[in-house]
Amino acid sequence: MIQFKPISLADRPIFEKYLKKSEKQDCSYAFANLFAWKHLYHTLWCEKDGFLITRFHIAGSEKIAYLEPLGNGDLEQILSEIKSDADAVKQPLRLAALSNRFFENAQKSNILKDFYFYKNRDLANYIYSAEKLRSLSGKSLHSKRNHIAKFEELYPECKGRTLTREDFPAIQRILDKWSSNQEEENSTMKMEREMIRTALENYEALGLHGVILCANGKAVAFSFGSMINSDTFCVHVEKADEDYKGAFARINQVMAESLPKSVKYINREEDLGLLNLRKAKLSYHPETIAEEYFAFSPTGEEADIWKLWQECFHDGDTFMASYMYPYSDANSRVLLYDEGKLAAMFHVHSFKSSWGQVGYMYGLGTDPLKRGEGLATKVIIDSLKHLKEQGNLAAWVIQENKGFQGWQHRLNFASSGKETLRFLTPDDFDFGGDPEDDWGLCRILNPKKYLERYVEKHPDEKSEFSLEDPIFPENSGTYTLDGKNVIFSPKMGKEIVSPQELLARYSMDDGTELKYIVGSGQH
User: Is 130 exposed, middle or buried (0-12, 13-18, 19+ CB in 10 A)?
Assistant: First the structure.
């Protein structure tokens, strides 16, 4: 049985012992990274039978994964113990940042031979020649030399030097300005600030090396990182005041110049799928874009959803990981199995809007061999009931399959709002994807709450009607709006409307900006 323990500063020599023997260049294994990000990943580790085993939580969720075990010994036995650990916490075995050599060995493993392996481009590490980043020689880096020349022309008293503790207040000022320039500081940015704080508080103990760039006596950029193995340095953080054009290019070069000649490679980490960041990293022409493998057990709900989703929507593995790990959990999944196989699925999530708490339904998929059997309608109804139980007053959906008319006719959805749905999420994940065409269909789940919101905006409204709701009989009855209150009676009157007609009659133009509510099992 594996006895994991939290990562601490005293563990650094053990990690470095294994890393120096390995050929690992992935930033995930750098001890400084593991320690400084422990608030997000809840990192645990163990040394057992000649291997270093690291366990962490994916994307701050309750889902756990294991880094490639480093060391020499009986790999099959250590994998068996890792699988037993995953079984003990009732999770599928997931493995991350796996080398090509490990992948090749996995094909011979009884434990991993049927596992699903994939690569995630968003998490690929950019590995550069340290000498090229120092000299910036060659035609391909001509523009970088120009940026630096312009910076030095504008700020002739610029100077790059080694970072010391006396520079930490200046770093904080750069960070504060960088944050203020962002539209909104999301949770990823907040987590990064916490990572930087942890790293600086333990700067010497983590073996960090940093540089700072000053222009006319003012600190305008900084960078710090640590060694991964004997010849690869990893840049963990790099920030610059964007008002100083060319500062990013110069701090990048200053870092490379500050490293000893024994450092052959510089890892500038991943781009996280951010297009501007990807463009910037590619512009330096890396020696390698290291895409390592990820893997997970082929059995269980997670694997079933992954397979059916790709069969229905043809999304790639990178997208699947960006949605499945942070957002899909037992509380959000509505699944229908038939003879042991996943036949239909939907995901439901709660958001805050100007109406209050509302639900959003995402990823409706049906096994192609089971279509036409009413499974889609059943899983939609189950999803609506699930959202109502969670306290949502309405449910939104984006109708991608325009041929499916059940939304309006059988399920009482209606168009609503003057704008397309807009999603605010902790990591900027977009549940829509097409801001020009993400028009929402809405279904009222709690008519009384919805009408109370309507009366707040229309205090002169005085009317009465009876609602007949075939999915939620408890909603059926007479609603009286007296200008201040909404009064409900279970008795039916003469004028009967459907939930769809209610939404059309008492329509509101807002409610289409949805801010994700972090649920249980997520951080």
Answer: buried
